[in-house]
Amino acid sequence: MSATDDFFDERTDQSEVKSRIVLKFFASWSKVIVQQAKKFGKRPRLAYVDLFAGPGRYVDGAQSTPLMIMQHALETPDLAENLVTTFNDMDEDHAASLEAALRALPDFKKLKTEPLFFSDRVDNKIEELFEKANLVPTFSFIDPFGYKGLTIRLIRALAKDWGSDCVFFFNYSRINSAITNDSFRPHMEALFGIERLGRMRVAVGKMKPWERVEYTLEMVAEVLKEQGFGFSLAFRFKNESGTRTTHALIYVTKHPLGFAIMKQIMAKESSTAPHGVPSYIYCPADAAAPPQLEFVNPIEKLANELFFRMAGTRTTVGDLIKREEPTTRFLEKNYRDAIIHLELNGRLVADPPLGVRRRGTCGPNVVLTFSCDAGA
User: Fold this and answer.
1) Is the domain 298-370 a CATH 2.60.40 member?
2) Burial of residue 20 (number of CB atoms within 10 Å: 0-12, 13-18, 19+)
3) Could you read off the pLDDT of 208-266 as tens digits, one per residue?
4) Which of 52, 101, 129, 153 is most buried by its number of CB atoms within 10 A?
5) What are phi and psi of 371, to 5 degrees?
6) Could you read off the pLDDT of 335-374 as tens digits, one per residue?
């Protein structure tokens, strides 16, 4: 029995959250692409690619991600008219099941271009194919059961062209054990690079489990940045008890607008948001657990970091947020809360001040003068 034989028996909460994130982003991304094309009087051509698509439905009847994507496309006239889709799964039974499920969707014939279905191994030939192709704006989802087939070359090939973004499933549990295992070294080198993997193999042996998670995800972000993707965001999933990270969903883009959209989506799917700051983590145990005492206030931490960068300067709230927020995991509201925290503690002067502004507000035109004293 293979590891995937019972994977599609029943849809887990984690799988539902993962699919919901992908669907919500696809809906927002495709809307932006269509609007941009129409703005210049062009046909809004766009594509969706899923190279590890799985079957159409779980055994319990729940829809898989491809069905959810196609259902949305059928309900959106611009997508039914202009979307091109490609679905692949190496398991021929899964590929056949998916095709049957998609064709059984009501109004399937509304699609001007029928989906393409393949049952191929994702290897260097697939990577080369996408490298050479000049892609229309494409949203791709890479969701291997383990990590075979997930390479930095594939991610780069799928997201290299204008308007093209990628989300990939990062199986931390398996990758964590594979980093220092010589048997899996070629796979890890294809993901992290030879030199970086060498450094990682030395570093992780000295780390505690939670440090190892953070470090590994930082290395992924570093790899992506080197490939020209200035924006990436990881959404982590924990096991049922909440004791360890099992996997992550990682978003990759070159455009700050895509990053801003995905940040809002992942923020809303977070299990917790201490002091209003999203955790970007889904943990099944959080729903049943009482609120935990927070020893570190993330707003205070953000405020301190902001102050030390801005000490002695003058700017507006709008300009500060526009410059700072797009590249971080914090939301615009978090920055406003941090600014008010600094104002209350005398570390900046706002014009108009709190006594004049409506309580708890901090509009874009408020002028901020930060103290010069880092010890204020």
Assistant:
1) no
2) middle
3) 999 999 999 999 999 999 999 999 999 999 998 889 999 999 999 999 999 999 999 99
4) 52
5) -60, 150
6) 999 999 999 999 999 999 988 998 888 999 999 999 987 5
Domain ranges of the chain: 13-287, 298-370
**Helices 152-159 and 124-132: angle between axes, nearest 10 degrees:** 20
Q: Are 179 and 147 in contact (CB under 8 A)?
A: no
Q: Kind of pairing, strands 281-282 and 348-351?
A: unpaired
The token pair that represents 126 in the structure block: 């697939």
Whether residue 271 contacts residue 235, with contact meaning beta carbons closer than 8 Å, is answered with no
Question: Given pLDDT bands bounded at 50, 70 and 90, which one contains residue 286?
Answer: confident
Long-range contacts of 224-227 (CB under 8 A, 24+ apart): 224/152, 224/155, 224/252, 227/152, 227/155, 227/156
- Sign of the alpha-carbon dihedral angle for 206, 212, 215, 216: positive
Residue 51, SS3?
Answer: coil
Q: Cβ(89)–Cβ(144) under 8 Å?
A: no
Residue that is written with structure tokens 């490298």 in the block: 131
Rg over CA atoms, the chain: 23
Name the superfamily (CATH) of residues 13-287: Vaccinia Virus protein VP39 (3.40.50.150)
Phi and psi at 316, nearest 5°, equal -100, 160
Beta bridge partners of 232: 252
DSSP secondary structure, 238-302, as one string: E-TTSSSEEEEEEEEES-HHHHHHHHHHHHHH-S--GGG----EE-GGGGTSPPPPPSS-HHHHH
The DSSP string of 172-215 is: HHHHHHHTT-GGGHHHHHHHH-HHHHHHHHHHGGGS-HHHHHHH
Length of the chain: 376
Q: Is 152 helix (H, G, I), strand (E, B) or coil?
A: helix
Instruction: Report the Cα–Cα distance between both ends of the chain, in Å, rounded.
Output: 64
Q: Residue 47: which of 129, 140, 159 has the closest Cα?
A: 140
